Amino acid sequence: MNTADLKQLATSNRARREASVALLIAVVILGIFLLIPAKPKVEQTPVVVAATTTPNAYANLPLQGKAAIVYDLTTHQTIFAKNADAQLPLASLTKLLTVYAAVHELGLNTTVTIDSKALSVDGPDGISGFSKGESFSLKDLASFTLTASVNAGATALAEATAARAGKTEPDALAAAAAAAGLSQTYALNGSGLDVSSTLSGGYGSARDVALLAGALLSEAPSIAQATTKPSVSVSSLGGQVHSLPNTNQGVIHTPDILLSKTGYTDLAGGNLVVVFDAGINHPVAVAILGSTQDARFSDVDTLVAATLAHFAGTASL
Q1: What is the pLDDT of residues 110-137, one digit of tens each?
Q2: CA 51 – CA 48 distance, rounded (Å)
Q3: Confidence at residue 317, expressed as pLDDT on a 0 to 100 scale
Q4: Coil, strand, or helix at residue 67?
Q5: Phi and psi for 232 in degrees, rounded to 5?
Q6: What's the pLDDT score for residue 133?
Q7: DSSP of 223-289, one letter per residue?
Q8: 253 neighbors 262 (Cβ within 8 angstroms)
């Protein structure tokens, strides 16, 4: 064997040894992986997310009114609204503005006298029972006027307010509406009686009515309280007593009621606003405009019940 053959043999032997070592290393590594225990498979449990939506107490309410609102007078938030900013005839809800204007301009203890103009809107039956020249404290006359919706009382209050302010009655009432922050409200007279077959004595929105009711409750709580009684009596300064029923006989059924005022004319249809305490010192205003003479009461009852359910966190009570 020559030198070349010896070199070739040596190279061949070295290659075989390197291959054997590589094979041995591979076998050892494979054995190590085979000896490591497999990691157990973890099953993924699906996560179920519970529904967190609050029940809607106002869903599908059978309201007949053209406009409605539930307004939280404590938080200044609208809880429910239906055409709440539409400007509609107010009918006797205008008397809320008249009384608010009188309280601001005249004060609760001012004497107000019934004159011929006031008696002329009292109706053919003289529903108020007032006589020309009778005088009352503003507080007593306003309480009687709102509770029994007395047109003569509202007219006398509007006259006295305008005279003290040195303005026309519409201008004096407009100033009061502005002071209360009402954007859709104006009045042509103090009673809200229709001026003609096409023109109402007062206009406003459900939102404005709610705000106005809240403002009057704050300014004159004693007057507001009178509107929550089934009937009302007033004594003139001369000692003549007048008594009438509340135009909202449902006040006895409304829980924790703080204020009530009805309105009805041919143009307006049935209107009603109430303020009730939905908790401890938590007044909420509920207003309905453009309903019917009877349905205005059931509309408000429906909204009051829905509001109590809303605060209870349920769909209904």
Answers
A1: 999 999 999 999 877 788 999 999 999 9
A2: 9
A3: 64
A4: strand
A5: -145, 145
A6: 97
A7: HHHHTTSSEEEEE-TTS-EEEEE-S-GGGGTSTTEEEEEEEEETTTEEEEEEEEESSTT-EEEEEEE
A8: no
**CATH assignment of the domain containing 131:** 3.40.710.10
For residue 73, the model assigns a pLDDT of 98
What confidence score (pLDDT) does residue 315 get? 74
In the chain, which residues have pLDDT < 70? 1-53, 317
Pick left, alpha or beta for residue 168 (phi over 0 → left; psi -120 to 50 → alpha; otherwise beta): beta
CA dihedral 202, 208, 213, 217 (to 10 degrees): -120
Structural domain contains residue 60 = no
Quick one: CA dihedral 293, 95, 190, 241, positive or negative?
positive
pTM as predicted: 0.83
Q: Return d(Cα 276, Cα 148) in angstroms, integer.
A: 19
- Residue ranges making up the domain that contains 213: 67-312
In a domain, 150, yes or no: yes
Residue 184, domain member (yes or no): yes
| Number of folded domains that form the chain | 1
At which residue do the structure tokens 């404590």 appear?
74
Nearest to 65 by CA among 78, 83, 80: 83
What is the bridge-based pairing of β-strands 231-235 and 241-245?
antiparallel
* pLDDT tens readout for residues 281-309: 999 999 999 999 999 999 999 999 999 99
Is 5 a member of any domain?
no
